[in-house]
Automatic annotation (TrEMBL):
Main location: Golgi
Reaction catalysed by this enzyme: UDP-alpha-D-glucuronate = UDP-alpha-D-galacturonate
Localization terms from the record: Golgi apparatus, Golgi stack membrane
The NAD-dependent epimerase/dehydratase domain, residue ranges: 106-344
Protein name (Swiss-Prot/TrEMBL): UDP-glucuronate 4-epimerase
UniProt keywords, alphabetically: Isomerase, Membrane, NAD, Transmembrane, Transmembrane helix
The UniProt record lists the keyword Ribosomal protein: no
């Protein structure tokens, strides 16, 4: 029987060839990684350059954390959410520093919103320091919010893009400048939208409020006085008229109203435990130029000009739905009056014990004169020169209430709140802004002196 063949040399050769193949693969992988790294670095640099050219403020301003739907470009910016630096600090301080003696320094949340933008402008024009915060969500057209932002920018008001749920951003803002006041207007608005996106109301109106109060109580030094937007919706199914601040608010008719009611209870808790100074303002159907497209007067105007039908609700039994429509300039005066009379918080920065009871107030900001919605439509018809196509239906059980009517005695007594703009005058100013903003030309009707869409 012969000897077995010697395979040692063959085995060694195969091991050597395998080694060479592994080395080649490793070198190829390393080379590929270097190419990929360089390509990624180049793309990042180009992206930074493009964004720097496109946005009026440096990228270090941007911090993103939102429970709401993002704006179209938000995904491009999210990687810069923690970019703070000397330029960001400098611009926050510049915008927050008052230009008048004893001026306020106010952090306005929801600053690109309807009420927020008007209040920010009013504060800045009288010499107060203002920094805005807004997440630019897409509840309604973000382009309108960007237009408001551009207006604020022209008046040297910095708007930080971020969310009140972002505690790290809030902490950094308070560390950068000792704000004396917060005007908390950031919220998820709208009664009917709650049926589509209920979680957004809890995220913004409850969780967001807690986030802000936590930072104000435990991180801000000094603790700011807080004025914030509640709503006339908290009166819910109350049948007493007019609505007074002492009326029960235990029967909200919508999730939106319930979150605002919860906010008032949360504010009471932080006032009691941490000595934060709070003023809640219950707004009554605010309207005017640069308003919210989801409000009836706004989308009625759009539909009437487009020749489309509008739905007008009536209460079961045939009565008209009525609202205490309040013009934006009157509401702004109320907000500034509340800020001016807000007392300092009494808590210890860091969340320590309070030195004494802190101010806790609630006020109605309304116009005191409920107007049927059918009259609002009639006024718009005259201003636009177009007859509305109306579908009159019974109000469904979707959270809306049949009427609102504000008793403003307390606000008048404590900071001189007194509305001066009637609905006809206010709508005339709104329509003038609307046709200008959307580039609509109105023409005079023959013989009537009214105006119609061209």
């Amino acid at each position: 029987m012969g000897s077995p063949p010697d395979t040692s040399k063959t085995t060694k050769l195969e091991r050597y060839n395998s080694y060479l193949r592994r080395m080649s693969s490793a070198k190829l992988l390393a080379a590929s990684s270097k190419v990929l790294f360089r390509a990624t670095l180049l793309a990042t640099v180009l992206l930074i350059i493009l964004l720097t050219l496109h946005y009026p403020f440096s990228l270090s301003y941007i911090s993103i954390f939102s429970y709401s739907s993002p704006s179209p470009h938000r995904s491009l910016l999210s990687s810069f959410s923690d970019s703070f630096g000397p330029a960001w600090d400098r611009d926050v301080r510049r915008s927050a520093t008052p230009r008048r003696d004893a001026g306020l320094s106010v952090l306005v949340t929801g600053a690109a919103g309807f009420v927020g933008s008007h209040c920010s402008l009013a504060l800045k024009k009288r010499g107060d320091g203002v920094v805005g915060l807004d997440n630019f969500n897409s509840y309604y057209d973000p382009a309108l919010k960007r237009s408001r932002q551009a207006l604020l920018t022209r008046h040297a008001i910095l708007i930080v893009e971020g969310d009140i749920n972002d505690s790290s951003l809030l902490t950094r803002l308070f560390a950068t400048y000792p704000f004396t006041h917060v005007l908390q207007l950031a919220a998820q608005a709208g009664v009917r939208y709650a049926a589509k996106n209920p979680h957004s109301y809890v995220a913004s109106n409850v969780a967001g409020l807690v986030s802000l109060f936590e930072v104000a109580a435990k991180s801000a030094d000094p603790q700011p006085a807080i004025v914030w937007a509640s709503s006339s919706s908290v009166y819910g199914l109350n049948e007493k008229s007019p609505f007074s601040e002492s009326d029960p608010t235990d029967h909200p008719a919508s999730l939106y109203a319930a979150t605002k009611k919860a906010g008032e209870a949360i504010a009471h808790t932080y006032n009691h435990i941490y000595g934060l100074s709070f003023t809640a303002l219950r707004f009554f159907t605010v309207y005017g130029p640069m308003g919210r497209p989801d409000m009836a007067y706004f989308f009625f105007t759009k539909a009437i000009l487009a020749g489309k039908p509008i739905t007008v609700f009536r209460i079961p039994g045939g009565k008209d739905v009525a609202r205490d429509f309040t013009y934006i300039d009157d509401v702004v005066k109320g907000c500034l009056g509340a800020l001016d009379t807000a007392e300092k918080s009494t808590g210890t920065p860091g969340g320590g014990p309070k030195t004494g009871p802190a101010q806790l107030r609630v006020y109605n900001l309304g116009n005191t004169t409920p107007v049927p919605v059918v009259k609002l439509v009639s006024i718009l018809e005259k201003l636009l020169g177009v007859r509305a196509k109306k579908n009159v239906v019974t109000m469904p059980s979707n959270g809306d209430v049949p009427f609102t009517h504000a008793n403003i005695r307390l606000a008048a007594r404590d900071f001189g709140y007194q509305p001066t703009t009637d609905l006809s005058t206010g709508l005339q100013k709104f329509v003038k802004w609307y046709v200008h903003y959307y580039g609509i030309k109105l023409k005079a009707e023959a013989g009537g002196g009214q105006m119609a869409a061209a």
